[in-house]
Hints:
Layout: E1 7-9, H1 13-17, E2 25-26, H2 28-34, H3 38-43, H4 63-72, H5 77-80, E3 81-84, H6 92-103, E4 107-110, H7 111-126, H8 128-133, E5 137-139, E6 142-146, E7 153-156, E8 160-162, E9 167-173, H9 182-189, H10 191-206, E10 212-218, E11 226-229, H11 233-256, H12 280-289
Parallel strand pairs: 2-7, 3-4, 9-10
Antiparallel strand pairs: 1-6, 5-8, 6-7, 8-9, 10-11
Helix pairs in contact: 2-10, 2-11, 4-7, 10-11
Amino acid sequence: MTITEPGVYDIASDVYHADPCDTPSLSAGMINDILIAPALCRENSRRLNPDWEEMEGADKFTIGTVSHVIFLEPGLLHEKVSVIHADDWRTKAAKDQRDAARAAGRTPILAKHIEKVEAARRAFFANPFTAGAFARGRFEQSMFWRHPMHGFWCRARPDFIADSGAHLCDYKATASANPERFGKHAFDMGYHRRAAWYLDGFAAVTGKPAEHYWFCNQEPKPPYLTSVVELDMQALEAGRAENDRAAALFARCLETGDWFGYRQASDLSRDLAFRVGLPTWALMQIDQRT
């Protein structure tokens, strides 16, 4: 299919990630790349890179992604996941089954791991608040809209949209669901940009803002601790500022065809040498030694 009108669409994940718009679109994942270097954004884009291909032999999914399927698309589990009944991947039989699953575009996972994922799901929905966050709404819907300043297509795919329109949810399997550690993790992963992008996209396609963007976090080991966290307004405004800078870069690259690498923000037209200093902690160590 080809997207030619803004809106919320019920389409498959592979279709969404292939970028079905009639002209190239910008996503939150691409924003993370383009802020590092536009060349990286182009290289990792199925739409922009004519030579793009999935790494041969690489795991297409992780245990976290299998958790995502079980939580958000349980009806597609048998379509997307192959459960391998083996103790590990060391035997030839297990390896052959794993390779056959990958060749069929499915996720191979050991039975002992799927049992842990299912136990995590039970623990997640045993918590009334986390369960309530995913109640009465739609899963895996794709949003498409035009950028208000630059006019190119934008897209986002929330894990969950509440029927009330009050909140969006993003399920994350993470090593630590401790809310006290989430701020640093959010910065490292670009979640402040993601939350702002999704909230602004939802407002663009529905005409009304959502009140919350919740990151629903869960640890993959017993007791499968969970937390629901949202970023404050300062973090969201910081994310919007970076999204605006990324959008300007994307528009420039589309217009010029110049998907450059590392360049100074003061002059994006050419490569220049960078002047950098030592980090503060290094200078402090040197000062202590002299």
